[in-house]
Amino acid sequence: MILPLQSPKPDAAGFINILTGRVAQSRTPLVEYIVDDVVMKPVVEHVLRRRWVAYGPDRESQRAYLDNFIEFWYRMGYDYVRFETSLAFPESKLIIADASPGSTKSREWADEHRSTLSSWDDFERIPWPGIEEFDFFPYEYLNSHLPEGMGLISSHGGGIFEHITWMMSLEGFCSVLINDSSLVKAVSERIGELMVKFYRHLLTLDRLVAVFPGDDMGYNVGTLISPNDLRQYFLPWHKKFAAMAHEQGLPYFLHSCGNLEKIMADLIDDVKIDGKHSFENNIIPVQQFQKKYGDRIAVLGGLDLNILGASTPEEVRRQTRALIESCGGRGRYAVGSGNSIPSYIPVNNYLAMIDEALLYA
Fold it and tell me: Which residues pair with 93 in a beta bridge?
């Protein structure tokens, strides 16, 4: 194993040039959307041999966490760090203890039945966040402390469709969509306008090299709501955010889980995403997706979480090599997980994927 890298040579500009097709692909870079702290902590402690500090309410702990965060992405061979946090929208969550071995954190899920917003009275009553209250410190700290050659990839945490269904609950949202679609329009516009203000600030950061948000709009066999409703209420906001990024010369990559086949043409031709992330083999293997769309957008990740979570390190290495040889060989491709690195992924499997990719770099 060659990890951790002793003398990394990150090249964020080269990473972007490969994925946008500005240059022929001469290496297959690494990409990741999120690495859970439960996985990051043992790597920081036992591989990087640094003291782990949790992100706390005080600036001292925040700086220490962010220093480890930078060192992790740097020594693991990434060309960038990716970071996100969210405006404090009032949302109903289900919270339980994380079942992953060694984890002391809690896990949150959106409550699909109970909502914090289901009527016009709620719309006027709830405490909407203000951008002036948002703490941009971690974004600005990362931007000013990256090693030479590294870039910042970032976004608002959670997309506009996610936040509206988290606030209204998926069940409540669907009911309102049928019975009073004007309320859906009003809520989506309120969330979208706040996100526009967020992105105006984010796009002032001089080390930002890409905007890479997540907004899960699908499930195994289709979109969570009708494609026409996505086109009417949500895709125009992604188009706005993408245009804001493009105005600054930055690509707009999209992480979105589920089967999005019915809106892929919209995402590519109208929204104008520059790359797609999140793949599951039981929906469409990343190799098949790339054959269909890889001449128009970048393809990001694709190592299925069932393989990454339940296979041996040797099998993870084999699957990583296969993706590099197939997708990497076609170009505009970065290798990584099909979704993210959640707390249940074995650390040795994560390291096997990274190490194997770096052997081919």
Answer: 110
